[in-house]
Write a structure and sequence with these properties.
The protein has helices spanning about 1-10, 15-45, 50-85, 90-125, 130-145, 150-165, 170-175, 175-185, 195-215, 235-250, 255-265, 270-305, 310-345, 350-365, 370-385, 390-415, 415-440. By secondary structure, it is an all-alpha fold. Helix 12 (about 270-305) packs parallel to helix 14.
Length: about 450
């Protein structure tokens, strides 16, 4: 105990802060993901792998595809900027914070209208290989989900404020949408898709309202909204946002690519992929998302106070540990996948044959966890230094690797080839991020 106490005392305070933040984020994210697991259990009980699940997965993916991409960019670019603003009380800082909300509203309204108008064309394009009933269901759901674009961008703005303040309750609120869907599916007596639609909309509205109540302006001002981009901070932010946006836009094609190839495999493949990805997402959220959100504000503060080299060392250390944790987690999930899928989903319309199909896909997909865990820590370090162009370049590399590997593997392995391609993609990305962090800001790469 004395040896342990002495070694803990020698740790840099940043390690302690990251560990404390990771612990709280783990607790809140675990609760939120329990709600997500409950939603999947309820959907599996009610619909199995039927056309309603294919349509729901397609509609929710298409409605949130671009908004979630923008959410990711806003988080990585806004959080370091908001960290720097927290100690300021200047009028231009107040203006910038209000304009962030105004920009989220304006862009959200535009995307919501575009989603509603393009719903028939999108549904027809992505459901072309599926039965006609599935395509019609997806089109109706997609139009109903049009307001999710506005709600998602408002959530992004409020969650970024809370993350910059290291107030981790925003992670808890991520469980509101799946909780609402699960409750509506269980309580609704009819067998149509209306509970999926109403529950999703109600859950996102609940999350938006709750975050708006608890978020505080980082510079201490009022929460009024302002339209326009007149604050001086936008010029710096735009450079990072454009580079990150281009990269994340490229990465946003991963899920549509997977859905496209899965639709070609046959009926039920999209549902199988959806169940598989939701189990994997639980591990990612409890590991990768937790540690990424814990490190970004701390790394940003370290760079702001002039300790960039120390932050780089800390990032490499945390990335190594997360790679090891991911390998252990992937091994455990590989062993337990049939039992885990049966416990989560095998009831009602979800048969033992469905369990076998999802478990087989899951055993291939879990190996994306180690490189994904390590890569997100390194992304936090690069973002804290403002090296958004490097992140963008690696994102374009990712989508190239993903597309080529998926096209090759799916012909030989079917649905499991889609998941193997994702493993290869994240491995290449983690290696690239590691090279970029080691080389530092003066050079692009040095391995």
């Amino acid at each position: 105990m004395e040896w342990l106490r002495a070694n803990l005392a020698r740790l840099h305070p940043d390690h302690t802060r990251i560990a404390r933040a990771a612990l709280w984020l783990f607790v809140f994210t675990f609760i939120a993901k329990l709600a997500g697991a409950g939603r999947e259990i309820a959907i599996a009980w009610r619909f199995g792998r039927g056309p309603e699940v294919d349509a729901y997965n397609l509609a929710i993916m298409l409605s949130l595809w671009l908004p979630l991409t923008i959410y990711s960019v806003m988080t990585v670019v806004l959080v370091p900027a908001l960290v720097r603003l927290r100690s300021a009380r200047k009028p231009q800082d107040l203006r910038f914070s209000r304009e962030v909300t105004g920009a989220a509203v304006a862009l959200g309204v535009f995307l919501s209208v575009a989603t509603w108008m393009l719903a028939p064309a999108l549904a027809q394009a992505f459901a072309a290989e599926l039965p006609r009933e599935t395509g019609q269901l997806a089109q109706g759901m997609l139009r109903s989900f049009a307001p999710l674009a506005l709600l998602t961008l408002l959530i992004a703005a409020e969650a970024s404020r809370l993350q910059a303040a290291q107030d981790h309750r925003y992670a808890l609120a991520e469980g509101f949408p799946p909780l609402a869907v699960g409750l509506f599916v269980v309580a609704w007596t009819s067998s149509d898709t209306l509970p999926l639609i109403v529950g999703t909309l109600a859950g996102f509205a609940w999350q938006t309202w709750w975050l708006a109540r608890h978020a505080r302006d980082p510079s201490g001002g009022s929460r009024r909204m302002a339209f326009g981009l007149r604050a001086p901070h936008w010029s710096e932010l735009w450079r990072g946002a454009l580079a990150m946006g281009a990269g994340h836009f490229a990465m946003s094609f991963i899920q549509p690519i997977d859905q496209w190839f899965a639709a070609g495999v046959g009926t039920g493949a999209i549902a199988t992929l959806g169940y598989t990805n939701r189990v994997i997402a639980l591990g990612m959220a409890l590991g990768a998302t937790v540690i990424s959100r814990a490190t970004l504000p701390v790394f940003a503060e370290g760079v702001a106070r002039g300790d960039a080299q120390l932050v780089r060392t800390h990032a490499l250390s945390w990335a190594g540990w997360m790679l090891l944790v991911g390998m252990v987690a992937a091994g455990v999930l590989w062993l337990l996948s049939p039992w885990l899928v049966a416990i989560l989903f095998e009831r009602g319309a979800f048969s033992p044959a469905d369990t076998q199909a999802v478990a087989e896909a899951l055993r291939w997909g879990v190996w994306q966890l180690p490189p994904y865990l390590a890569g997100l820590v390194l992304v936090s370090q690069l973002a804290s230094e403002g090296r958004y162009s490097v992140i963008g370049v690696i994102a374009f590399l990712n989508i190239t690797v993903k597309g080529a590997c998926t096209s090759f593997f799916v012909d030989h392995l079917g649905l499991t080839g889609i998941l193997l391609a994702t493993v290869v993609m994240y491995s290449v990305a983690a290696l690239s991020f590691w090279c970029a962090v080691v080389s530092g800001p003066r050079r692009n790469f040095r391995c």
